[in-house]
Design a protein that fits this description.
With 286 residues, the chain is an alpha/beta fold. It has 2 domains: 161 residues, Spore Coat Polysaccharide Biosynthesis Protein SpsA, Chain A, CATH 3.90.550.10; 101 residues, Serine Threonine Protein Phosphatase 5, Tetratricopeptide repeat (Alpha Horseshoe). The chain has 8 helices and 11 strands. Strands 1, 2, 3, 4, 5, 6, 7, 10 and 11 form a 9-stranded mixed β-sheet that branches. Helix 5 runs antiparallel to helix 6 and helix 7 packs antiparallel against helix 8. One of its GO terms (molecular function) is transferase activity.
C-alpha cells in the first residue's frame, strides 16, 4: 500500500460540537485524518470515528507540544496538516498535492484567517510539516524545530491553495478564556526554566516572557503585561524579543493613557454639566 502524502492530525478534548464541520472541511483534501483525544467526557471520540478518523487516546498534561507529538505517532504520511477542531479548511486539493510533492522545505506556512470578536485578522502559521524532519516544542505557543532544536527550513503555501479559518476567538469570552489558559501555561513554563538555573535556555526564557506579555494583553491584564515586558527589556537587551517587547509595551502604554484620558474627560464633562453647587450625586453640596 502506497504511503499517504498528506494526513490531518488533531488534538481534541470535548469538541463534539465543533468537530463535525472541521472534519467535513477536510474531506477530499487529506488522505487520512488522525484524531487524538486527550480526555473527553462528551462524544468527541465517537464523532471522530463516525467521520472515518483514526482515533487514539491519551491524557492532557498541560503541554500542547507533548500532545501534538503524541498525536502524530503511527501516522505514516509524508506531510502532516496540524489543525484543531475550531479550524475550517478551504483548499485546492490538486494544487496542494502538487506543491507538497515538489517542495524541499521541512515546514510550510499557511494563511490562517481569525474570526475575532474585535474584527477579523490573518496571520501565517507553520501548520504543514514533515514528521520525519521536525517535531513540536513548547508547553504553549508551540513551534516546530529540527532534531537539534534548530528552526526548520520553511516555505509558504499560496492562499489560493490552502487557507484555514479559525473560530477560536469569535467571542469576547473565547478570547479571555484562551488567554487565561495560556497565561497559566506560560507561568508554568517560566517556573520550569527558573528551576534549571544557569542551564536554562535564555532565548526560551525571552520568548516565553514575550508570549506571556502578549497573553496578558489578550486577557486584559494590562499591568501584568507591562511588568512582564519590563522584565524582558531588563534581562534581554538587544535581542529580537527585546525589540518586539518594546513595541508591545509602547502600545499598551498608549492604551492605558488613552483610557485614563477618556476617564478624566468624562469626569470633566460630567462636572461641567452639573448645576453650580451640585455634587456628584446631583444634590446640593453642604
Amino acid at each position: 500500500m502506497a504511503q499517504p502524502l498528506l494526513a490531518a492530525v488533531l488534538i481534541v478534548k470535548d469538541e463534539a460540537a465543533m468537530l463535525p464541520a472541521c472534519l467535513e472541511s477536510l474531506a477530499g483534501v487529506v488522505d487520512e485524518i488522525h484524531v487524538h483525544d486527550t480526555g473527553s467526557i462528551d462524544r468527541t471520540p465517537a464523532v471522530a470515528a463516525l467521520y472515518g478518523a483514526i482515533v487514539t487516546h491519551g491524557s492532557w498534561h498541560d503541554d500542547f507540544s507533548a500532545a501534538r507529538n503524541e498525536a502524530r505517532q503511527g501516522c505514516p504520511a509524508t506531510w502532516i496538516l496540524a489543525v484543531d477542531a475550531d479550524h475550517r479548511v478551504t483548499a485546492d486539493p490538486g494544487a496542494l498535492r502538487r506543491l507538497l510533492a515538489a517542495v524541499t522545505a521541512e515546514a510550510l506556512l499557511v494563511h490562517v484567517d481569525g474570526a475575532h470578536h474585535a474584527g477579523p485578522h490573518t496571520q501565517l502559521e507553520a501548520r504543514l510539516y514533515r514528521p520525519d524532519s521536525v517535531s513540536w516544542t513548547g508547553r504553549v505557543h508551540e513551534r516546530l524545530v529540527g532534531p537539534d532544536s534548530s528552526a526548520p527550513v520553511q516555505g509558504a503555501v499560496p492562499v489560493s491553495t490552502l487557507r484555514l479559518h479559525h473560530l477560536g476567538h469569535a467571542t469576547y469570552a473565547d478570547r479571555i478564556r484562551r488567554a487565561s489558559r495560556n497565561i497559566a501555561l506560560g507561568k508554568l513554563t517560566l517556573d520550569e526554566l527558573a528551576a534549571q538555573g544557569t542551564a536554562a535556555d535564555r532565548q526560551q526564557i525571552a520568548r516565553t516572557l514575550l508570549d506571556l506579555g502578549r497573553d496578558c494583553i489578550a486577557a486584559e491584564q494590562r499591568q501584568q503585561a507591562v511588568d512582564t515586558f519590563a522584565l524582558l527589556l531588563e534581562l534581554f537587551p538587544g535581542t529580537p524579543e527585546w525589540s518586539q517587547a518594546n513595541d508591545a509595551l509602547a502600545r499598551v502604554m498608549v492604551e492605558v493613557c488613552h483610557d485614563r484620558f477618556c476617564s478624566t474627560l468624562v469626569d470633566q464633562l460630567q462636572a461641567a454639566s452639573r448645576p453650580p453647587g451640585a455634587g456628584r450625586g446631583g444634590g446640593q453640596e453642604p
